[in-house]
Amino acid sequence: MRRRFNITGSCSPERHYMVRLDERLKKIKEDYVEDGSYFVINRGRQYGKTTTLRSLKKYLSEAYIVLSLDFQELGTEEFADAAAFTSAFAKMFMRSLQTSGVSGSGEFIESLAVFTEKKDSRLNDLFVCLSNLCKNSPRPIVLMIDEVDSASNNQVFIEFLALFRKYYLNREEMPIFHSVILAGVYDIKNLKLKLRPESEHQYNSPWNIAAKFKIDMSFSTDQIAAMLAEYEADYHTGMEIHKMAEEIYQYTSGYPVLVSSICKYIDEDLPEEDGFDDLGKAWTSEGITRAVKAILIDNTPLFGSMIRHLDEYPAMEKMFQAILFEGNIFAYNPDTKEINLACMFGYAVDRGGNVQIANRIFETRLYNYFLSEEELSSAIGNKAKRDKCYFIHDGMLDMDVVMKKFVEHFHEIYGDENTSFVEKYGRKIFLLYLRPIINGTGNYYIEAQTRDERRTDIIVDYLGEQFIIELKIWHGNEYNERGEKQLAGYLDYYHKDKGYLLSFNFNKKKETGVKEIVLGTKTVIEAVV
């Protein structure tokens, strides 16, 4: 059977090309399970949680009895009250117990069956039964519950966790599971956010017994390379494995489903497009760029969740807008609600003590979303659409003309605006101008490492040709000259001889327009507005 890259559901090495999890499983066993820890694997959507749990179940099966439940099987009615939840939980637990091979499990299944039929079952009674099972089990029992946040808006689930805490703290006298592993997007400490009116929201929960799960579940460049090596052994494409792995990582920062999405598109869809009629042509830098472009316009569940969360949490949206368009820097503080949520959902991360968008694909998708909200009413964007024919010659983008026309249109539309407006929205205005010019053919992304309140670097890829554009706020001649030299160094990194500098200058005696600057072997086209 042909193995494929998988972006839906759990992965298995027999059917899918996937990053090997041996080291991760070994670390979870040694650092958490053997220590008897209760813990939560909370990561963003499609981050490999279910795949990890299923692989971990097999990995632990020799030393432990592993019982695996999935709360997605439960509907709203099962959380109506304690009796309904107890009955539903007992049924799930019985099914898992039946397939576990526990010696003498029949008698425990019979004792659990009582809870599936009673209409007045209590959680306390269920836990007495579970404790008896754990006491008499021939091996320690590990309980896994996937999609645990399916229950996150139900009070009965909080009571369920409270009993786990009670038994955990007294397990010398009241035996209970050796280790409990919960998996979901939401951190358990945030469950009460959904349970009470806004004025009573609290962060505490009865799951304060949980050990902090510190294992990195993103894919490293080496892990991606090892996966690609397995693919290459089957198809002999001639790809440069480590170069491809590094470029995929640069776009995804190792977010599992994004890595697999790029690989899946290159493998299955790209060979049907012009210019990529065989896998050797597809597994190239141009192929990755084409795959990213397709992913950015795809209506995936992951991006759907992102947009929904922006609507639900306007403070998080406001923070992202300030980071992307204004270059604002937010210190990482997990006690700040919008920061906590952004990181919990996987859209942002803590890098060097500051909040940053998690990866280049998320960042570009957010740019596109925010810009599209204004594009229809954008005067400068309409100018770009109207003049699009001036920017494309023989199918290629003429960035010199783009810069020249932007200066003209900027002064025509925004010449009378005050300094604070231009300083705050200047980079957004340029992106609103650029997007309709390259849309449908080219990609762009922002180099996060160089983005701050004064400077932003944009990389545009148009049919395989890259353009490096530095946007900056004018802070005197010395600063400007230093920026020109920085851009020249940046061009070296990208092996380019020509780059572009867009300066927003608020000096009343400024000289606006476009000029060419030669710095050694590099040419810089500087546009001043």
Task: Describe how the helices and strands are arranged.
Layout: E1 4-5, E2 16-17, H1 22-33, E3 38-42, H2 49-60, E4 65-70, H3 82-98, H4 105-117, H5 123-136, E5 141-146, H6 155-169, E6 179-184, H7 221-235, H8 241-252, H9 256-269, H10 279-282, H11 285-296, H12 301-312, H13 314-326, H14 337-344, E7 348-351, E8 354-357, H15 360-375, H16 379-386, H17 388-391, E9 392-393, E10 396-397, H18 399-414, H19 419-438, E11 442-447, E12 455-462, E13 465-473, H20 477-493, E14 498-504, E15 513-519, E16 522-528
Number of helices: 20
Binned, the helix content reads 40-55%
Rg over alpha carbons: 28 Å
Low-confidence stretches: 195-203
CATH superfamily of the largest domain: P-loop containing nucleotide triphosphate hydrolases
Account of the protein in words:
- The structure is a single chain.
- The protein folds into four domains: about 20-200, 3-Layer(aba) Sandwich (Rossmann fold); about 220-295; about 300-355, no CATH class; about 380-529, no CATH class.
- It is about 50% helix and about 15% strand.
- The chain is built from 20 helices and 16 strands.
- The protein has a six-stranded mixed sheet, with helices on both faces. Strands 3-6-5-4 form a four-stranded parallel sheet.
- The radius of gyration is 28 Å and the shape is elongated.
